[in-house]
Design brief:
This protein is of the alpha/beta class and about 280 residues long. It has one domain: Metallo-beta-lactamase, Chain A (4-Layer Sandwich), CATH 3.60.15. Helices cover about 25% and strands about 25% of the residues. The strands form two sheets. The protein has a seven-stranded mixed sheet with strand order 6-5-4-3-2-1-14. Strands 7-8-9-10-11-12-13 form a seven-stranded mixed sheet, covered by helices on one side. Helix 4 packs across helix 6. The longest helix has 14 residues.
Amino acid sequence: MEKRWSVEIWGVRGSSPVAHRDFLEYGGNTSCIFVQCDQEAVILDAGSGLLGLGDALISKGVRKVHILLSHLHMDHICGLLGFPLFLVPEAEIHLYGNTEGQLGFCESLKRLMGRPYWPLGLADFPSHVEIHEVVPGASFRLAGIEADHGVMVHTLEGNHPGGSLLYRVEQEEQSIIYGLDCEMNDAMLQALRNFSQDGSLLIWDANFTDEDLERCKGWGHSSWRQGIALGREARVKMVLMTHYSGEYTDEFMQKQQELAAREDVSCCFAREGMVIHL
């Protein structure tokens, strides 16, 4: 029997949060998406949107979560500093991230979360926190799930300064591909085409328009038009654009959404508060 999944949007911006009335329609929080994968609570990135999500999870009685981090740039982890579930003693929080780098994921995370940058570190919270180092290209099951059941996660190394992890989260017929902070090139297109093949939902880095990409080469991002092309080649059912530049107002984003709809009606643009059922 096919499992029912839901996808909730809690943060849509890249680089830094935006607090201004011109950004209220699409939202100003940085990357954070919640996926209810049957019985498992999965969070894709921990941007500033994680703070509101944490309060919602507590009110719903959710006590076990899996947080898949694409990388440790601040816009993708700043929500961890005040994540409400860290203060719940019975909470079980699993953090997954890239093992590569001079320090590795665990040590890097511990250095970012604690003094002098924050008064509390991971060891100071009453909740149960487990850190899982992930080698790019590896596949694994979410922690605490029987070997032959549950949600499977596949990874792919992205093209981004300092590196990034792309995720494919799947269970039976459902699959979500999380492709943020990745700059497209020929090699990346081929790898992503295979990685995303026949997916239910592709969550795509629409940080820039094609025009802005020309002046931002090497920044590690892509465009909504590239996401549409990838979705077609990989035969993905739906492409969700997100991780918008902090310069793009609601008015500008509305125009981009209208342009994209003329090219492919299966794509949509993420807005905070949006819920997608798969």
